[in-house]
Amino acid sequence: MNLATHYKCDDCHATFSLDKPALLCEACGGLLEIGYDLGPADPRRITDRAAARRDLGLWRWSDLLPLPRGAEPLYLGEGDTPLMPTRRLGRHVGLPNLLIKNDTLMPTGSFKDRGFSVAVGFARALDVKQAFTYSSGNAGASFAAYAARAGIEATVLVEDVANESKIAAISLSGARVLRLRYRSSLEIFAGVSALSEAGFYCFVNFINPVRHEGMKTYAYEICEALGWRAPDVMVHPVGTGGGLYGAWKGFRELRELGLIDRLPKMVGVQPAASAPLVRAFAEGKPVAGRHGDANKTVAQSIAGDAPIQGGSRVLRAVYESGGRVVAVDDNDLFEAMRLLGEEGVLAEPSAAASTAALLRARAQGWVSESDTVVSVVTGGALKQPSALAQAARPPAGTVQADPAELLRIFREGLV
């Protein structure tokens, strides 16, 4: 069973068949969304099938994903990451019902694998042979891995400030890497749009209408783990915002199917140095303009002075859900990395942003002590080794490897 039926334009509402690759609307250039016919669906059948196919990870939800009938899923082990109760962290921030969705355990080490598994699998089924994306690093590594598996020739446009570890991961999977010099994110998006309009198949969030479909599986996994109940609040780091928007779409589909009876508040998090969506939200605007300096934060993966298409979809999800977009500074990020480490979760700075936002959430009043809150951790610490070293506490000291000396130190409680 596959309930995906068509592409639909956000702006002019034109619809198009799913039997060919598509990016922006042919009629007006607007963003496309994939539509589903959920009316005749049997929700119990969907959940039973998903429960019986746990070996397929996020693809056990294929009824609600846009893979053409008969096509093989592109699967590297993505999905079904732990929804972990917290111990110290929940007490520290005053949220006893705080849960961590740990997407550092995805195949390439970040949440991007949700989107690329579905989007690249969809493109392979429609015989796409060459494609590109733009990335600060994590998306490029994920795209390169899934494209290699799918036999798609991949090119990744990488920010010139991207760290070498991420660039190496992209190249290791065989993708061609081009560094980008630019003054604003707007220049990057203009170039990406020009390539897309010229017929080069693109995997950039939202320009590609499929990537955020994979992010819907956040909602499915979380609500299933909570006994088919939505959390009160979901907090997610935001760069382009595909993770937050995709999850919001997933929650709405679950409510339409009758599997949950309410929706969570969606909270996006950006670095204070580069927070165009935060400013737009504060001003009540539906789109965000250029704002901030992406080079003045350690949160490389979510740093950008302007969002794609003004961040309209992300802001819409925030407004519709009664959520918000909040800013965190680098000191908050380092503290959050340490707190997550004490929960056994090693996060890069951008991935710790959702936790950093919660450090002041109770004081700011946008969460209550009784709320069930899901904080998404999107990428592993080894994605950004230099920041890991900055956040970590120094060693207790250096001692001689001598049994007597070690016994003395331990007995005196010096460690």
From TrEMBL:
- InterPro entries, alphabetized: Ser/Thr_Dehydratase (IPR050147), Thr_synthase-like (IPR004450), TrpB-like_PALP (IPR001926), TrpB-like_PALP_sf (IPR036052)
| Positions of the Tryptophan synthase beta chain-like PALP domain | 76-379
- Tell me its cofactors: pyridoxal 5'-phosphate
Q: Per the UniProt record, which residue ranges are transmembrane?
A: none
Give UniProt keywords alphabetically. Lyase, Pyridoxal phosphate
Q: What is its EC number?
A: 4.2.3.1
Q: Which family does it belong to?
A: Belongs to the threonine synthase family.
NCBIfam families in the record:
PRK08197.1, thrC
What name does the UniProt record give this protein? Threonine synthase
Protein encoded by which gene:
thrC_1
